[in-house]
Structures are given as structure tokens and as C-alpha cells.
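Co-fold these.
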Amino acid sequence: MSTPHRVKVSLPEANSRGYEVLVGSGLFASLATALSRFCPAHRYAVVTDDRVAELYAVRLSRMLHSAGHRTDVFAFTSGEAQKTRETWSLVSDAMMESGCGRDTAVIAFGGGVPGDLGGFVAATYMRGLPLVQVPTTLLAMIDASVGGKTGVDTPAGKNLVGAFHQPQCVLIDPEMLQTLPDAHLRSGMAEAVKHGAIADAEYLDWIEDNVESLLAADPQALSRLIMRSVEIKAEIVASDVMECGPRKLLNFGHTIGHAVETLSGYALLHGEAVAVGMVEEARIGERAGVTAAGTSARLRRVLTRLGLPTSLPIDFGADAVVQHTRLDKKARAGRVEYSLIQDFGRPFIGPAGVWGHPVADETVAEVLAGVGSRG
Amino acid sequence: MSTPHRVKVSLPEANSRGYEVLVGSGLFASLATALSRFCPAHRYAVVTDDRVAELYAVRLSRMLHSAGHRTDVFAFTSGEAQKTRETWSLVSDAMMESGCGRDTAVIAFGGGVPGDLGGFVAATYMRGLPLVQVPTTLLAMIDASVGGKTGVDTPAGKNLVGAFHQPQCVLIDPEMLQTLPDAHLRSGMAEAVKHGAIADAEYLDWIEDNVESLLAADPQALSRLIMRSVEIKAEIVASDVMECGPRKLLNFGHTIGHAVETLSGYALLHGEAVAVGMVEEARIGERAGVTAAGTSARLRRVLTRLGLPTSLPIDFGADAVVQHTRLDKKARAGRVEYSLIQDFGRPFIGPAGVWGHPVADETVAEVLAGVGSRG
Ligand SMILES: NC(=O)c1ccc[n+]([C@@H]2O[C@H](COP(=O)([O-])OP(=O)(O)OC[C@H]3O[C@@H](n4cnc5c(N)ncnc54)[C@H](O)[C@@H]3O)[C@@H](O)[C@H]2O)c1
Ligand SMILES: NC(=O)c1ccc[n+]([C@@H]2O[C@H](COP(=O)([O-])OP(=O)(O)OC[C@H]3O[C@@H](n4cnc5c(N)ncnc54)[C@H](O)[C@@H]3O)[C@@H](O)[C@H]2O)c1
Ligand SMILES: [Zn+2]
Ligand SMILES: [Zn+2]
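Predicted complex below.
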């Protein structure tokens, strides 16, 4: 293994050390060492899903056991449909059954689903256990594992119940992406495009220039993508841990995206829904006069080249989508706030430094229904 | 209403203002004003139980509505048996149903059960809503509402799932205790005795000298008790928000207490179980040579005068109790740590400033089984 690249996530709390995100090809093989160093514990509870477990859990347990770490694996059925309070209860109960106490650290191992669910278990088990994120999907590596958001879905919508719980460290081995299904690799790319769109126009160019090698899962291209995306996310998170300011920017594409994802019954992957969401929200921004003309068209082009959808499924009513955005966590005082960009790398900041832009439901409905010119 | 007495709870986090505990006879009548001042919000979700709702919810809603606050009441069946993940889910879902968003503040209204459960809803709803504690039992006033611990029980034991979530303020009106059943008033006294035992020998004397007026629910005596207990709890909490040091002291009586409470199937009230726990843990301390001789005898006398039990129910096996202490959150690395006192007002602090004293299971079993002299 080459020396891993390290990205520091600084936290503003006076008594917090922040934590490191380690990115290194082959890092998985030295997980035991990394754990001893960054999150020493009497025992480890690995929270994962059955697919990841099938591919990697035996190796993981063996490594940890031979390093002398007592380790139990708690695996649930893979998929967003399991990211529920019920699964959270079952995992917590199984941990109690096996006697995990406050001397246990949780390893959230897998994509964003085990990441969010394992993180929420760690946040709430005996009022909080130390947590290590070991993401294995692109989406989880560049987005879900960094920032401390944990939680589960409820029948009313995504991530409606959860907590902020920062990990002790995040350990990323890009080689684990070799086994990831193509659709999930593409889905993860949507968040990288988002990072370029909100924070770094050059990065967006680089992604567009490297679409082929990225989609071919070229390890070097993927490592570079992961590092830059993690840097961007870490910077934004560090500036605003509790999500009252700049962090809202990360919601670009997600107000519409979440609605679309829920309405599809999770037939659309998260990144696919976010791809649609970014294009639609760029169009909303163009219509509202805050986003430069041509932004949605450029996004549409990059996302299409990455094999991602860029418009609402035809059987989706605009009104149903609007309805769904109203329960969004970003809805305040009855109005829905959108995180918009002025141009690539230039977030929109409203009067008095307010992040987020309230948009009237009718405007959103018109844009979604395709009224007016398509970007 | 006389001007309320204010106790400040300072929090060590750099970016936290801490919060105030207001204690005042008749304060309930000016709740709307206090809320506008200490926790302004677009709307309020009152989480309570059906008994408290029956007694006070109509008045509360009316007051808040006429002050222009949009308010919804979410009441569940009273009792510890309802302090579960299921009730937490139902309340969260009902709040979603009625459209509560991030602009909502939660009012945890009632005893420690609505306090802990409403607090956990606030901690986890959309990853955290502002919270106000309005305790209505003595136990909740002097203990549960201050300190930010929230959570629910699981089949494996009490408070095994939860989060730290500090309120914006705590509003206490001792007059609400006039409707509290006698057994619950006595149960609350156990925690006041604990405060005296761990932090202030004079306060313990004062309680013993005022047993009659306290049990007669004399408003002045109760106000004084609440204020002193809140001060003690606030001081300890401020010194150790995350419970890694001095705060452990508050667990005095609770390692055995929780085991006894669970084993009784909650037939024993929390304070009753803690009364037993304090006497037994004082005896454990005496046996271990850390607690002054006569401590358990004195505790037994005060608690008996308060009408509280002081020994294990005869049908409880010592081994079953020991077994239960092993899942306690205070069990680390397989050993159970007890928070002991040297003498009244003098906590035991081990070598190297370590709080908590590991005690071998056999010693605990012997003491519980009554082997050796009764204190
Ligand atoms: N917490 C956050 O800040 C944050 C940010 C973005 C997304 N999310 C959440 O992340 C979730 C989506 O994450 P996801 O797309 O990773 O979903 P996921 O965890 O379900 O993973 C997708 C699929 O890939 C499989 N898989 C995982 N790693 C693999 C590997 N290395 N090889 C082969 N198969 C593998 C999984 O078993 C699963 O079937 C959503 O629930 C979303 O809300 C959270
Ligand atoms: N969070 C903490 O730090 C902390 C500390 C101590 C205890 N607790 C928790 O508190 C709980 C016990 O609290 P509790 O004893 O208040 O239980 P509780 O909330 O069940 O209240 C006891 C009973 O009194 C009724 N009641 C409440 N206020 C009343 C009033 N003013 N008039 C008439 N009836 C009233 C309730 O309906 C209930 O039936 C336990 O679950 C315990 O774990 C938490
Ligand atoms: Zn996302
Ligand atoms: Zn207690």
C-alpha cells in the first residue's frame, strides 16, 4: 500500500480534535492498524449489509481478530428500503444481546445505507459510541461518510430521523470500488459533479475531461476524484458543522432530488435522483434570475455523458413532487428553501448573507412541468 | 407569580450559551412569555402523557394559542412501559403527519418519561429540534429535566438508546406538584437524598429536618428542595457534560437501582429502586473499605422516614441483580464500575483521579445476599 492521502476535517468545537479522512489504495488491508491508532476500543461492532458482508466481512473479521480486536459483524439486508427505524432497532438489540457496552466502537462498513444506519446506531447506542466510517461505495466515500450526518428514513420521507455524530476517522480504499456495480459508480459521480458545481469549476471541467477513465473505474482517476471531493466536502463541513450556513450548499439538487427519489419508491438511485434534481434546480435558479443562463444545459451535458438521468420520469406529476418538497427539512416557516448556484463554483448567497433561496411552489411546479424554455 | 429563581447551567462548549432553569410558583401561567423569550419558534410540539394532558394540556394549548403560538399536543399513554422506541416512532410520525418542520420546537411536558422521550424526539427529529423541558413530577424537576440526557428503554434495559440533547431552558412550577400522587412525590425525594449524599451533607440534614413539611407537599419546602437540588445537579453537569468524569457521581445508587427497577418489571418506581440502590451501594462501599462506616445506616434512616424502601424485595435473587448490572452502561471492559461516596458530600475518587470504582461480582452478590453484617 502506498502512503494514504490524508484530509483533515476540522471541527469548530473548542474541545474537539476534528478527524482525518484517509484515502489510500490497499488501505483496507491495514484497517486493523488504522483502528488501533485512530479509534482504539475494547471491542468493535461492524454494522454492514449482506452484500458487503459477503464480499468483505470474512476478511475484515479475520484481520481484526488476528490483530487481537474482539469483533462482531451485524449485517442486514442491503438496500435503502432497510434504512429504517426497524433495522436500527434490530441492530441495536443484536448488539445488546452480544453484550456490547460503552467500551465498544462501531464500524459503519458499506455504502451510505450502512454508513447512515450504523452511524445512527453509534449516535444513540447507550447515548453514543465512537464511530469509524469505512465507506465502500463511491457515494459513501465522497459524500455520506464525511460530515457526521447519520439517520434513517421514515414512511414520510428520507432521513427524517437522525443525529449529528462525527466519526473518529474515515478510512477509504478506492480499490473496493472494483466490485461495485456500474450503476452505483455512476450514481456516486453525481455527487462529484455537485461538488464541482457548487465549489470548483475547474474540478467540474476535470470530471468532464475524464469521463471515460472514471466510468472504466480506473483506480488513479477514481482516487483523484475521491480526494478532491472529500477535500471540498470537508472544507464546507468544517465551516458549518450544524448546517445553518454554507453547508446548505451541499443540498444543491437535493430538494427536488429527495422528492423524486421518494416518489420513485427508491427505484431511482440517490445519485440518479440528485442528477435530475441538479438540472431542475439549476432551471429553477435560471427562472428565478439567480443562476447564469446555460448552467442547466451544461449540467445536463456532463451528467448525460456520465450515464445519469437529467429529467423527471415522464409519469411523475410536477404537483406530486412539489407536494413532497414541502415536508423537506429545508422547508422553514412553510416556505421551501432551495440551495442555488449563481454559476459553477459560485454559490448564491441572498441578502443579509442568508444561504438558501425561498421559491414559490407555483414557480417550481411550472419549471418541473416544463413550462417555458427547457434550459 | 413571584419572580422565578434562576439557576444557570453552563456548558463548556465554546459556542454554547448554556441555559437557564427557572423555578417559580405559578410560572406555568406565564409559560407563553417564557417560551417567546427563551425558545422562540414558528410552532410548538408538546410531547406529554395522557394523565398530564388531562390535567394541564387544555390550559397549556389555550395559553400558547392566545399568545399566537401554533401548538399541537402529542400525548401517549402514561408510564415507564411507554418509554420505548415504538412510542418515539409514533410521536415522530404524528409530528410529520401534522407537518412539523425544522421551524418547530419541542416542549417535553410531564414527568421523566415524557421528558426523556420528548427529549429524544427533539434530539432526532430531522436531526435535532430545539427543546424546552417543562417537568411536572418532583423527579423530573430535580433530576431528569436538567443535564441533557434523553432516551428510551429497550427490552434489554433502561435508557439503552438515547442521545445528549440540551434544552433551551427548563421551566419549573412547584405548584404543579399539588396534583402529583403521593408515591411519586416520595420517589422524587430519593434523588434529593442522593444530591445531599454525594454533594452536600448540610442539605441532607435539612431534608431530614423537614421530612414532614416535604411529605405534606408544603410549597415553600418543596421550592427550596427543588432549587438546591437543581443547583447541585447543574453544577455537576456543567463540570462534565459528556459524562466521563464527575458526572458519574450522579449514578450513585443507580447501578443496583436500575437492575432492581428492571427486574421488578417497573413495579418499583424509579426513586424507590434508587433508594434501595443507594443503601446497597453504600454497603458495597463500606465492604470495599471506601465508604465510612454508618453511611448505609444513616441513608436507611432518612429514606425510611420518607416512606421509601431500603432493601431488596425478598423474592429478588442477588445473582439476578448482579447479572443485570453487567449490561449497565457503566460496565466497561467487562467490569462493573460503581460510583461510591467516602462520606456524605464527599465522593470517592480513585487513584489517578478516576471516577468510579470497579467492584467484583462476588462482592456485590455477597452484600446483596446479606452476607456479613447489615449496615
Ligand atoms: N450522511 C450523509 O451525509 C449522506 C450523504 C449522501 C447520501 N447519503 C445516504 O447514502 C445512501 C445511499 O448510499 P449508497 O448509494 O452507497 O447505497 P448503499 O449503501 O445501499 O449501497 C449501494 C449498493 O452497493 C452495494 N455495495 C456497497 N459497496 C459495495 C462494493 N464495494 N462492492 C459491491 N457492492 C457494494 C450495497 O450492498 C448496495 O446494494 C442513501 O440512503 C443516502 O441518503 C447520506
Ligand atoms: N434524563 C435524566 O437525566 C433522568 C434522570 C432521572 C430519571 N429519568 C427518567 O425519568 C423517568 C421517571 O420519571 P417520573 O417518575 O417523573 O415518571 P413519569 O413521567 O411516568 O411520571 C409519573 C406519573 O405521574 C404522572 N404525573 C406527572 N406529572 C403529574 C402531575 N403534576 N400531577 C399528577 N400526575 C402527574 C404521570 O402521568 C405518571 O403517571 C424514568 O424513565 C427515568 O429513567 C431520567
Ligand atoms: Zn446526496
Ligand atoms: Zn435517577
